[in-house]
Amino acid sequence: MNGRTPTPEQVVADAGNARQQLAALDHQLQSEIDAIVFTAFKGGRPLSSDDIEKRKQLRATQMEVRDQFNVLSFVTLQRLDDTDEVSQLLHQMNTINAGLQDDFRRLKKIKRYAAIIAGVTDAVAKATEKLAVIAAKGLS
Predict the structure, then answer these.
(1) 53 pLDDT exceeds 50?
(2) 65 Cβ partners below 8 Å, 6+ apart?
(3) Helix crossing, 49-81 with 8-42: angle to 10°?
(4) What's the pLDDT score for residue 31?
(5) Which of 6, 22, 1 is nearest to 73 (CA)?
(6) Rounded Cα–Cα distance for residues 87 and 60 (Å)
(7) What is the pLDDT of residue 1?
(8) Confidence class of residue 3 from pLDDT cuts 50, 70 and 90?
């Protein structure tokens, strides 16, 4: 990375590599657990207390590995958030959002003026009707 912020592609690639390593470790642990059970099965015997204890330890380790998938997700998101590209995108989105807010305020003013104009137009229309009635009576 040479002192530079990684690109989103680099962050995703690093996360993919870490995920593969975690998956390989999970698979290895599961294989060891399966081997304990299969060995007892092949021997036609129940699991010994040592087998049960070893399996319990392997399962605990496996749960820790699986928890690391969640940690990896959060770390990856944080690293992505720290990239220059995401910072630039956030800046652009904030700029667009500010413009949209200005547009929204302008539209609210236009709506308010339109309501005023509609009221005035309605009053003028009613006054015109009254004048037309008065004019019609006066001409008759």
Answers:
(1) yes
(2) 22, 25, 26, 29
(3) 170
(4) 97
(5) 22
(6) 39
(7) 46
(8) low
Instruction: State how far the Cα of 120 lies from the Cα of 107, in Å rounded to an integer.
Output: 20
Q: What is the pTM of this model?
A: 0.60
φ and ψ at residue 4, rounded to 5 degrees: -95, 160
Return d(Cα 14, Cα 5) in angstroms, integer. 13
| Alpha carbon 25 to its chain's center | 29
Three-state helix/strand/coil letters over the chain? CCCCCCCHHHHHHHHHHHHHHHHHHHHHHHHHHHHHHHHHHHCCCCCCHHHHHHHHHHHHHHHHHHHHHHHHHHHHHHHHHCCHHHHHHHHHHHHHHHHHHHHHHHHHHHHHHHHHHHHHHHHHHHHHHHHHHHHHHHHC
| Residue partners of 108: CB distance under 8 A and separation at least 6 | none
CA-to-CA distance for 43 and 37, rounded, in angstroms?
A: 10
